[in-house]
What does this fold into?
Amino acid sequence: MSFEAFLAPLKELENCSICPRDCHADRYSADLGYCKSDASFNIASICIHRGEEPVISGKKGICNIFFTNCNLQCLYCQNHQITDRTIDRVAYQMSLEEVITRITEILDLGINMVGFVSPSHFIPQMRVIRDVIHSLGYRPIWVFNTNGYDKVATIRALEGLIDVYLPDYKYRDLLLARNLSDVNDYPEVAAFALKEMYRQKGSSLILNEDGVAESGIVIRHLVLPGYVENSLEVLRFIANELSPRLHISLMSQYYPTPKVRFHNNLKRNITHTEYRKVIREMDSLGMYNGWLQEFTSTGHYAPDFRKKHPFEDFQEEQ
It folds into this structure.
């Protein structure tokens, strides 16, 4: 089957402004934008992932598509092997035919969820993949797993195409966003993106008979060591500006990566006291929907993208 007819969305990459960086780079040329991504299908892994929230992974897992590079450059990123924009990604360039084959092989196992991980700078490729999969007769639940740094217009254009939004909301502290993720406007930009997701989906998380999300929003927040006040402000924003009924995934899994080994705060794990303080704030705000992590999860979800299956070690333990 020829997929040529599905490639029209990629033309947008000739003058790329799909994420808030607004680089206007020609990704078909050597003059790339902030993320250093070209117009190819740059994908580090397509695999079954069972380490997501229960309503995302379900019993069988989700088919996750991990795009490379990122429009944020977080010092502490657990996926740093594939998100660092300074590393050559030629080895991760896949043909569309290969992408579709890998996805359909997983869907044929009875898994009916597909997650796009770090898709903000690959929206046209994401749309092509979705359209081709639909043309082949598959109707999976589509999950948009984003760092939250997305344009409102981009999210608005996804209405009706994405079933479940799975965004991070990392920062309310502008200086922290600048210092840790090299971004000058994250709190405001991500807030508007979240508001658009909320407009589309509301606060209800609709589950099917297997307890798997079919429609809605789950907001993730990773508690960082030494920056508890930022976490408290993130929760207050969600409760007061969106809804306390939204489902929150409050993560304790932070672990120090090599890049932060000399950082005053990030070189250590979070403490029980820090995590409990954030949990108490959730309770005081009436945020009772969502998930907490076992405190022993620190480092447990660390992937190794040098392996064919980057998550195989901890998934075999479950």
